[in-house]
Amino acid sequence: MPHTDTPTPASASLAEHGLILRELTQSSVSAAENPAVARQYRTVERGFYEEPPTGEALDQWLGLSLQDGRRFLGVYPQDADPAQTDPVGTFVDFVKGLHVGGAREVPAWLISNVTVSPTHRRRGILRAMMGESLQTSLDRGVPVAALTASEGGIYSRFGFGVANSFRSIEVEVQGGLPLRGPAPTGSVRLVEPRELDGLGDELYRRAYLQTPGSVERTASYRVEETDANLHRNGGKGTGLYAAVHYDDGGRPRGFVTYRFGGWEKKPQTMEVQSLITTTAQSHRALWQFLGSLDLIDRISWQAAPDDGLLEAMVVDRRRIRTTFTQDRLWLRILDVPAALSARPWSQDGSILLTVTDSMGWAEGTWRVDVVGGEATVSRAESTAAPDLSMDVAELGSVWLGGISPEVLRQAALVTEHRPGAAAELGRMLAQDRPVHSMTGF
Ligand SMILES: CC(=O)SCCNC(=O)CCNC(=O)[C@H](O)C(C)(C)COP(=O)(O)OP(=O)(O)OC[C@H]1O[C@@H](n2cnc3c(N)ncnc32)[C@H](O)[C@@H]1OP(=O)(O)O
User: Which of 171, 187, 320, 418 has CA 20 to 30 A from 143's CA?
Assistant: First the structure.
């Protein structure tokens, strides 16, 4: 079966090293019919020190990738056949919705699976792949790129800024988890994880549209929450539990999936994998349910929001310990007028912003006029005196309201030319709800 890769314009730096950047096309869900894509994916898994899938598990992954519409880039020796050669650089991009506030979405260019072989690092392979990908995003009219990063020091040089964070928590639940306020309404029912097929997507979609800074989730989440990943225990399940909260009318409003940490682990711990809720009652009910599990002393959650909601709900907030916090979504604005005018603004006003961009796309001085919560954004005269200047990475950080321009001014990353302009921009960009990204990708 011939592979269907096409060479893309290779950057001069790759050619100097005898390398070429290729785009691979996936034609079906069969690894045998897509040897170059299958090799690319196995190379990614090895790049992150994971055991690469084979057989049906690899086909399952190819099916998920097709659902996401992933585009694969690989860097190869110039004469190599991608069907028979592992790439020395891997890169994946695809388009999903990004919630920018007020239940509005923009298409975002998601970047993932970036690896460079340890034998080929620091020769500009990442830079070449990133340049090609971001230009393609712009060419296809996608105004913003997004990623979740393995390391914090890599991506600001490409214009990405941290837009929100997540945290890992441990909640002590010996004797239950007393909540403040009225008892939660509705009921919680245990279900088999496979019963979440379809329901999980529906509830995620509703929760996502309530959570600015979240992206539509990738297809792999469906497989994980139904415990049907063929790469784990041949798809026979891994001891995942699931519970759904129903309101008083019997409508599903949220769910939680969780796994027991094992009897060896002390204190005895239940690990939350996913907690998705669409109403305040559902959130309360599912935490009360987790707090009431017999034989369990602690609930842990690796990817919890950092919004203060759980602390506000419980009688004793000291039962909640944050053990880790990390940047989550990194955003790279490519088309300034399209990105800034897509979101709702919380306060009217006018700001002149000078943006620097080492890759060029967002460079310039931009006039932002907000009337009735809608922004009109246009290029200003080059002689116009700006109110604020910042790099495009900082613009990505403040755009959705998750990071304060005033804090970045205090960090000397935003320069104020009119006193008070940073705080004013912060008020204009504020969101009604906490900014959080519910998934990685
Ligand atoms: C979105 C995601 O998928 S996140 C996952 C990223 N992948 C990993 O962490 C897997 C392990 N690491 C790797 O595969 C590689 O080291 C990569 C992908 C991080 C870097 O690839 P390379 O081809 O070596 O990077 P490249 O030579 O193009 O360097 C580009 C720039 O990034 C810088 N850089 C590269 N790696 C790092 C790093 N780990 N930390 C800080 N800066 C870095 C380089 O110094 C260079 O800077 P400059 O152009 O401003 O001088």
Answer: 418
